[in-house]
Amino acid sequence: xxxxxxxxxxxxxxxxxxxxxxxxxxxxxxxxxxxxxxxxxxxxxxxxxxxxxxxxxxxxxxxxxxxxxxxxxxxxxxxxxxxxxxxxxxxxxxxxxxxxxxxxxxxxxxxxxxxxxxxxxxxxxxxxxxxxxxxxxxxxxxxxxxxxxxxxxxxxxxxxxxxxxxxxx
Length: 169
Known about the structure:
- It contains six helices and no strands.
- It has helices spanning 26-33, 64-94, 102-109, 113-124, 127-137, 142-156.
């Protein structure tokens, strides 16, 4: 019958009408695979809109470097929080404020940690690197040593909000 669906399933197509969209020819395939022509103004024709994702950016439009800074900053802030909890616990036990150095807190966490690193650093670089640099750095409280750079990294990696204020920062 004319216009009846085939027995094997399919579309109800009347006989005798051309089906232009279903014709597969070499010319149609070449036309479909060809690159679109460039616009007359000579530009590349790319239109970066709201929903597009340019290379080097994540979906929300935050550059990858900013996202990495924020993640590293959050890790540093988490480590600073651990050192702050250690000092807070020691303060509660002593009934007085206690601020311990990074080396002292590190020794509580891992007994041989600072001594092993000191021996390794002194064996591989001149002694003043440990005495005047890293050794003094380990005398700073851990929450300060990791908290300040962590906060700076989170601040530096914050998403930019253009058009909401007139300040330059």
